[in-house]
Amino acid sequence: MRGAVVSGTDQLSAVFSALADPTRRAILAELADRDATVTELSAPFPISMPAVSRHLKTLEQAGLISRTRSGKLRMSRLEAAPLHDAADWIERFRRFWDTSLHRLDAHLAAIQAAQAAERTTHGKEH
Amino acid sequence: MDTEAPQIVVSRVFDAPRELVYRAFTDPDHVAAWWGPIGDSLPRDEMEFDVRPGGYQRWTEVFPAQPDLRVRIHIDLTDVADGELLDGVIHVTGRLPGGFEPFETRFRVEFYDEPDGRTRLEIRQWLPGHLTGPSEQGWSEAFSKLDALLTSVEA
User: Fold this and answer.
1) Where would I find the beta strands (DSSP E) of chain A?
2) Is ipTM over 0.90?
3) Nearest-neighbour CA in chain B from A108: distance (Å)
4) What is the CATH number of domain A8-79?
């Protein structure tokens, strides 16, 4: 466990918040290909190295990247687990609605069938 | 009000009149019949509904096959329009299935007439942390990117 990483839904909030920024998503996409230094990551973007450093700090706090020293170089590496957690959360809720609304559909059909049957019965009585 | 784009959007058409579909969301006997994952059960005596703006819907979900699980659902209704709209925050606590931790999530359900006596349901849901979320197209962009990332990471 890295120090700044929090757990549960707080972690999820940090992940979504970090993913909200297009530059940070682009940085993650770069890191999906390979580990990189802040200099390498600054090259494709029209922003300063300190600005990229700040984005890397946000990503690190969300647990989306880790940073290690290799000699003099500080390398950033993509950490996939929080992304999976975020995607997993959404997937669970999609499944929840899918299952529940399927049951709702069956429930509505059953009620209306019962109402129709009752109307038919009453119809015969009158 | 929350102007952020929701992370979950579900649109579904039901072959039932709008008034009945609305009742399925606001009458405890109906909700008990369809809410939740397969295998759950909502004890009727633990359901408390007061459906109006500023009101609430509360119930417990139990799982007969997994007696250690017990989920409390507390919905605070911020906005209600009879037959048309339910908007609020769902607070989920207790021992949740699937390793879920307690959380709260904002939701909005809109009910619309469709031709031939059918009803269209529009469900929107905001994940925890939406307050710091991105602007309008941010999410779809974020998630197409996320999908691409997950694919490349798994590859």
Assistant:
1) 65-70, 73-78
2) no
3) 7
4) 1.10.10.10
